[in-house]
Amino acid sequence: MDLIVARNREDLVKARGGGEVALVPTMGALHEGHRSLMRLARSRADQVVVSVFVNPLQFGPNEDFSRYPRTFDSDLDVCRAEGVDVVFHPSVDDMYLPDRQVSLLAGRMGEIVEGESRPGHFDGVLTVVLKLFNLVQPSVAVFGQKDAQQLALIRRMVADLDVPVEIVGAPTVREHDGLALSSRNRYLSEDDRQVALALSRALRAGEAERRPGAIREAAREVLAAAGPRLDLDYVVLVDPATFSEVGEEHAGEAVLAVAARIGATRLIDNVILNLNPA
Ligand code: PAF
């Protein structure tokens, strides 16, 4: 079957097949990480829909909405190569009514960690994701673990609002040297890229420790040693479901998450640890 490109909600309705649908929401600039989400989606449903929409609601006034990479032709090639059935690529006017009033609030969990640095970001993410769920009506939706707080909040939204969609998280895909794949990596110069490697090195240093305090400290040390071109935003060790900091006696899963700015590019990364205090 040829790939169908739905540019508005009417096209989308026509493109919907009869069986189960798996949705992969994206903002385009697709890379190997997105491809892994598409493969997971393919294994879970009859029809795979990929949305490509750079959502203005989730960008702050000083963020990179206007320069965010838009590479729709090559995105289509990626989707074709992965056997995607439908690409939903609406315009901003198609997604949002001009007199739009109602949107979602991510609550306290949307105001901490990444949400503290990006006020309103998660409100915008949840609003567009719920709209995409309503439009595409998937039974399953696949998101990357790379955006761990986004994934946790989407799970929270689905639980809090009884949204009938199963949320599947997919592991972060990395370059050979550890850099987590991100659409924003294309902003990095070769020198910036070398500095950015400190993020994944910091996570590995944290992984080598056993106690929360030592884990945070090991990660911080690596990031501090990266020099002045890396402007550290945060290092946190948090509960994967709530994103609140874990205490020294925490047992079980925890997410070590880091964010830093390298030049004009802000990058995030994380790893899931399993802590077993003796
Ligand atoms: O992760 C992303 O690319 C975006 O935040 C998402 C989930 C597609 C919503 O715009």
TrEMBL record:
Pathway as given in its UniProt record: Cofactor biosynthesis; (R)-pantothenate biosynthesis; (R)-pantothenate from (R)-pantoate and beta-alanine: step 1/1
Reactions mediated catalytically: (R)-pantoate + beta-alanine + ATP = (R)-pantothenate + AMP + diphosphate + H(+)
Assigned GO CC terms: cytosol
Residues the record lists as binding (R)-pantoate: 58, 150
GO process annotations (BP): pantothenate biosynthetic process
Protein residues bound to ATP: 27-34, 144-147, 173, 181-184
Keyword list, A-Z: ATP-binding, Cytoplasm, Ligase, Nucleotide-binding, Pantothenate biosynthesis
One Pfam family from the record: Pantoate_ligase
Further remarks about this protein from its record: The reaction proceeds by a bi uni uni bi ping pong mechanism.
Name of the protein this chain belongs to: Pantothenate synthetase
Annotated source species: Nonomuraea wenchangensis
Lineage: Bacteria, Bacillati, Actinomycetota, Actinomycetes, Streptosporangiales
Name of the gene: panC
